[in-house]
Amino acid sequence: MSDLLHLYSLCVLALFLKMLAISCYQGYFRLRYRAFANLEDATFFGRAVHAQDMPQVQRAAKAWANDLENIPLFFMLGALAVALQTPIETTSVAFATFTGARIAHTLMYLGGWQPWRTLSYFVALACLLVLAVLIGIALL
């Protein structure tokens, strides 16, 4: 296995675990406070249904939605970068920085910390742009 594929695989695994953690975070708040917005969940636990999810669950859902807008792009661009054998130094920095920035983004989102959430978002976006340029160069 190439070094770049190894790093890409580690980043994909870390991002998967981060997204899994968001799901667990939501479940924790739902179960701890027995507060369910879905009728079937409330019925199963013998609780009244809430009109909406708790604020912590809503915030986690927004972080999850933001991940779904950004992380699949990394998966695709990263796989192309590995397949096209883009320069290992620059690509490795983009992979690691993107992963760290997305983890930071989630932590900042859950904590409601600005401007750090926006900064981490733009750092990750810059990494995607770097990967796109590297892929473009490799294709030309």
TrEMBL record:
It comes from the Bacteria. It catalyses: RX + glutathione = an S-substituted glutathione + a halide anion + H(+). GO terms for cellular component: membrane. Pfam families: MAPEG. One of its GO terms (molecular function) is glutathione transferase activity. The chain crosses the membrane at residues 6-25, 71-88, 119-139. Its EC number is 2.5.1.18. The keyword Metal-binding does not apply. It is a multi-pass membrane protein. Signal peptide: none annotated. Keywords: Acetylation, Endoplasmic reticulum, Membrane, Transferase, Transmembrane, Transmembrane helix. It is found in: Endoplasmic reticulum membrane. The keyword Membrane applies. Conjugation of reduced glutathione to a wide number of exogenous and endogenous hydrophobic electrophiles. Homotrimer; The trimer binds only one molecule of glutathione. This is Microsomal glutathione S-transferase 1.
